[in-house]
TrEMBL record, chains A, B, C, D:
Name recorded for this polypeptide: ThuA-like domain-containing protein
Organism: Halalkalibacter hemicellulosilyticusJCM 9152
Pfam families documented for this protein: ThuA
Domain (ThuA-like) ranges: 4-219
Length: 241, 241, 241, 241
């Protein structure tokens, strides 16, 4: 069965800033969704200002992998929607958190840390080095991906140690960053991927699109029944003591 | 400087159940605190029904490692206290979560998962096997610790994969459990340790006391300055593009 | 392209012991290969007593995932074949090491440890609990797999901490074991899977077959170019100092 | 008891190259040993050209933590000495591998990979960023350590994913590197630390000395009895089937 992807975007910069609108006339969500459709995924989009932020029970239940881009309006995302997304992740839905999504409620809630970092908007060159060449997320990607200009994110990045560290970024201004990180949470798989500041055409880059597409494949649910929790009868006899 | 420990206990079973009071006449917190004093730590206790649950700013600021036992009344712990404890952990305070503390607000918030599990009160024998003999937490501990009777906790335990898995429990009724788990969160170190149901004399067991004492040593703060987050000037010149 | 599997077996017990031959008339390699063919993989077998142990350059170059079962004759495997297999793993070939293969030259060489363990042949019941429900290796598998009789392997198992711990075994005689472990080495992925003593019909168990089949899928090479090592020209100008 | 350290150095560059001799008149081993003596450790040195490379059974048995620096003459280290060092590490001796020691027999044997990397001698500036502020190895260290000139080591570094990643290096020429990595092997703890090319005064840098000193403390043996391996009697009755 084709993996079903929902690309969620806060979609505010696009409406405020002509620079962003010029780069992403269909929104960041539109650009990513188009790339994923091209890769063969069954892809929808959802945005903050739709009812329930476009993430109704129906949409979530029919989503195998959710992609998340937010920045200005993290605080406007309703807590109950965050709780529903989290429940779906623990049940197996894949989650790909992009760039400034590091500060989204859903990412912070799944990580348990502040998710804080250093940042700078100064046209730094970024070079993302592959540090795990065995990982399916880097299929078809060279030794590094170079982005002529990006926002800088620098360490210390306050996240739990990733289960798998896939990319490390080099920045022109002298910093490094763990920029491709996987996590397992419950039955679900999470990938954090750093690049994608709204004023740069990062999501039009084919290597970046390839990573996101690979991550969708990797994060797709295994499809097992949810484990049984709570009171459990013994499977073996217990002696009287 | 001597490591300063605060042993926090909800202290409700002790007041309700004579069986528990007989085993722990000074409360679970008292038993653990006595063992830690004996090991040379500067040890205090705090309980749920004290003002601010005994965890005032002053107490938290003077605590290097906090030990947490709770069960019946997780929901009575004030969210603002949980937030203050979490902030202190991210700043470097060690945290040792015991047994039913797996469902405490503070542990769930730091883990990002449901922390659910299977359980049974049926006098199972438990045998905790050491799976990382290089870890300082198992100093002075044999190949396994055997507890004649304990509550069973069984997999799947819905936690993030531990940074280091130190103990795995065998239960008489047929289950296994990841019963000694370390996590790094921010500047702080966390140890989850499974045993300690209130109706058994587990915290009087010298091997269990030894593990908790070792964990205090291991979890003590490194004492570095908190990293700087936010906007950062470049350390190297960035070219005009 | 269909994943190409080679099932390697030392094939000695089958020739010496009628009990084993009765359970595996086509050899352990034959039983596993039949299951994998049934799952749609392009599957070959190779055994110790063939020239070059059946692992010629041609065979290795056309193998995406190698499965390894050995026990009595680890020392008879030629060092140069071990080196060739290791090189292929680092280049990306998947490797699935089964049961007593824990003591094979190839596994010990890739792990860097003694790979020693406790063992007992006493018809223990084994129950393999899934501890990572998000992992593709447990697709279609229940909360646990129960084997009525198996050889016991017990902790401490002297391996590096697995990158991902997928199964933990419970044994009737009181032990536990990390029985499903993944490792990344170079461009290659490795899965160690415990069950499969030669005198029990373990590889005829459908759940065990399912795990091996899932592991083949998971371990298949990503297919990237091997990274470039050695002297490297700078990608950015370096200032005179 | 004071931790006993042996600093092992191949000590060849010092004898061939006046530049190196000027920087390290007592050898690299002498510089490191002096720093560790200053930090209060019971410190000895040993070098390649001594009988048994200075690593007799007596020396190894009285060493809690071994520090290793080699480059030109890895192949001259006798295999039997490597085997003895490895056995001691698995039994609990700490091991700190420095810089070009990444290609030593002992490190490759404990890692199981090629340990290959990119390199360049071009006076790159190196900046080592702390990515795990909770780790005792970074006690007293700032957010980063800056080295005005160093040899570059770049990714991909062909090592197993570290158990804990402590430092990531930024290089002026555009590369990154996992430059502080911990591993657990058997009862022993290993720390790989990148800096220290022989033509730069890196080991005179106080922050670098501090990291090595912290690593000694961290890697010191836990002092448990070696686990029992091999045939094991059941701890619980096994039913007839």
């Amino acid at each position: 069965m084709t993996t079903r992807v929902t690309v969620w975007n806060e979609n505010r910069h696009e409406n405020k800033n002509p620079v962003v609108r010029d780069i992403y006339p269909e929104g960041i969500h539109g650009a990513i969704a188009n790339a994923l459709k091209g890769a063969g995924y069954d892809t929808k989009t959802a945005t903050l200002d739709e009812p329930e932020h476009g993430l109704t029970d129906e949409v979530l239940n029919e989503t195998d992998v959710l992609i998340w881009w937010g920045h200005l309006a993290h605080h406007e995302v309703a807590d109950e929607v965050v709780e529903k997304v989290k429940k779906r992740v623990l049940e197996g839905m894949g989650l790909i958190v992009l760039h400034s999504g590091h500060f989204s409620k859903i990412f912070k809630s799944l990580m348990g840390t502040s998710c804080d970092l250093k940042w700078r908007e100064a046209d730094d060159k970024e070079r993302l080095w592959v540090v795990d060449p065995s990982h399916p997320i880097v299929k078809g990607v060279g030794e590094y991906i170079e982005l002529e200009k990006e926002e800088m994110y620098g360490e210390h990045f306050d996240i739990p140690a990733p289960d798998q560290l896939v990319f490390i970024s080099w920045f022109e201004g002298g910093e490094v960053f763990r920029s491709g990180c996987t996590y397992q949470r419950g039955n679900g798989k999470i990938f954090y991927f750093r690049p994608g500041h709204e004023t740069y055409p990062t999501y039009h880059n084919e290597q970046i699109q390839r990573v996101i597409s690979n991550a969708v494949e990797w994060a797709a649910p295994v499809g097992r029944k949810y484990p049984q929790y709570g009171n459990a009868k013994p499977l073996e006899a217990i002696k009287d003591k």
